[in-house]
Amino acid sequence: MNKVNNRKAINNLAYSGMKTKKNKYIVLVLAVILTSLLFSTLFSVGGSMINEMQEATMRQVGATNHAGFKYLTEEEYNQVKNDKKLKSVSYRILVGFGENEEFTKLYSECYYSEDENAKDSFSYPVKGKMPVNENEVVVSDKLLEALGETLDTGKTIKLDLNIKGETISNEFTVSGYYEADPICPAQMIYVSKAFQEKYAPSPTVPFSKAVAGDEIGRYSVDFNFGNSISIEKKVGDLIKRTGLREDVDYGINWAYGASNLDPSVLIICAVLVIIFMFAGYLIIYNIFDINIVSDIKEFGLLKTIGTTSKQLEKIVIKRANLISVMGIPIGTGLGVLVAAFLLPVISGQFDTITVGKGELHLNIWMLLGAALFSYLTVIFSSGKPCRKAAKVSPIETVKYTEEYDKNGKPKKKSAVVILSISLGIVILNSVFGFVSGFSMDNYVQDLIIADFSIQDAKLDAPGMRYTDTKAVSHELMDELNSLDGVNSISAVYMNYSDQEFSEETWAKIEKNVLQSELLDEKFASNGYSEDMRKDELDYRLDTKTLDGKTYGMGELAVDKLKVIESKDGSDKIDWDTFNSGNYVLVTRFRTDNDKVNFFDLGDKISIRSYDPKYAETKKAVSESGEEIEYQSFDNAPVKEYEVYAVVEIPIALGYRHYSLFDCDYILSDEEFLSLNGNDWNAMRVIMDVEDSKEGYVNDWLKNYTKTVNPSMNYDSKESITDEYAALGRMFEVVGTVISVVLGLIGLMNFANTIITSILVRSRELAMLEAVGMTPDQQRIRLMKEGGRYFVWSAVVSLLASTVLNLTLIKALANEVPMFDWNFTLLPNLICLPILLILVIIIPVIAYNRMNKVSVVDRLRIE
Q1: Model confidence, pTM
Q2: Residue 809 belongs to some domain of the structure
Q3: Could you tell me if 197 and 93 lie in one domain?
């Protein structure tokens, strides 16, 4: 059988059919533009925001690399460096810590670093170069300002560096400086290789066999894989491949943490993406199907002259491709413009994003992704109408009618129209419901729990090993208490020591904690080798102790604790009962994924006194054979308490340095001082003040921590809230704009549907007019038809919005800590009256325009 080249004929038929029915296909192109606008806006805004947020997270982490190893020897570094599957590897060597008095409130670390590692750590000099000579140094602009220096290179500065517990004071020439990011946790001091080798030579003994505190001189090795998929698995494979010790300390950059999201969140997001795609599908399918039905006679005539079903399919697909070529670039371009307008508004609200703020981070894959989504939507949407056109026989096409309901409307078409209109409103309501649930209180609840908190400047600094946990004196406490406007004030005392247990209590801890899978998980996450695990367990079983902290808290602080369970069943601690001196609050054993109780309510716990008057000086022999003296409290009295409640301590209230078990107790402040001595100073003090006096108290604390006692620092609820309020404003802006875009798309889809429905029925309406139906009657008829669409769309959208809000949106909001779920149908209530107005206006406008063509001319339309 000879193969006929009919491509040109099919192309001509596709083009000519569209030319003769321009109005219908213009509406279809508009539908494609709407869908492309939806997808490209989401891709552009979403992609750019993800990029900015990821970079902000990287800056918070302090690195762009996928992962890294800590505390390696040079030999171990070479094992990693030579691995062929790594895309890039760079390192830095820990030399010490900045100890200048001027750096009290600026935690600083000193390293020798390769250039590439400094770049990946956002700390490469913006002016000057990395140090080469022994006396050269690179510091941050913040450190230079703290030293009272101008931002320039070539000047001499004096730095005090803590290296292996010894302070080394040297003068350095500033070879360069970098711009410190406000959210980066540490300031970097970079010295030369010569300085590092002289003062902090790299040990050759693996870290797992080293003595405690032997981190100085060790390599921190950062690396990238070919992609960021399954980073943790790749790190495990890398360890096996290179033969590194199993207990190597490694970290995953949580900026690449999408793969670690809760599966339920990923499922919810996937469902929402599918709903978005389905909405776009319905927008196009609805219009496409109406057009195909109106063209059915054209296809029947083509079949009578020999056109095959496959050729008809090619004609429909060709038209779909032409529509895509015309609509997708325009829609994608408009989406990019909308995104370019939105991003500066959105990211301008982020105080934490400093580099590339508000930039449209476009790449070819993002644009292609948006275009591909749109194109696939067009092809899928045209599939069913295409098959409908191909299957109908020539005879059927001449007398073709759709299946009608009792109102005289096509059943399937009515259902699709209603669904496409409803889904747009449902999506709008869902997006608005989720975004409007942003809760500033939830977002900062762990960061600040009172109007003010005052403590040692280094107490909450990340990475600080030795901090003053007794910095707030009783005199300062009295001074704070006397400030005008202070409503409530509470001290937080803390003693760090191993907790001791009775035989009965220890048996319970062995079963609940030491024999649980959670302990294995905690060991693994902390990088314990098998030998280290065994040593730790043997020590705990031998001494029957766990590491932990004993807090003393006043009423205000206790009121801020999160109560998991309590003796009286309340979610608040009864202060009078708790302060009786007979009760203790306890925490739980925690891992990243789960928690288990150390104790049950009503259990008895013994706590030893650490009052200095009970201290006894004893001597012991160190591992090196040196005789050392230490303070023993073995003979100090022990008091028994009953477990009143199991609680969680907010980050802003507790000590932010954690150990393996963290078996923590909380006593009342009076009981803590009664047990440990009244001379014990507080770790921090929190207070609530009258709203009208917040400014006065803030000024007092600012002056105190800046001029009177610079070693102290304070946090205010206002400063923390202001820092993150921009995030709340961003969500309001994003929610409003996205809601408006989605709302406009839904309304335009409705208008598109009504206009298309009228255009393709121009011949039908002309016939009705020819047999006596007046134009006014036809307008009323069309408005009634639109009214039916409106009523059904209102019912479906309200029901679907309610169900989705109560299920997926509620589940998603509950999984994201910064959001509160709240039920809303506000977008529905705003959109539905607008739809009702369109139902009245659009049929009149469309009919009047169509009516300009005479009845005779309209009857000629096929």
Answers
A1: 0.62
A2: no
A3: yes
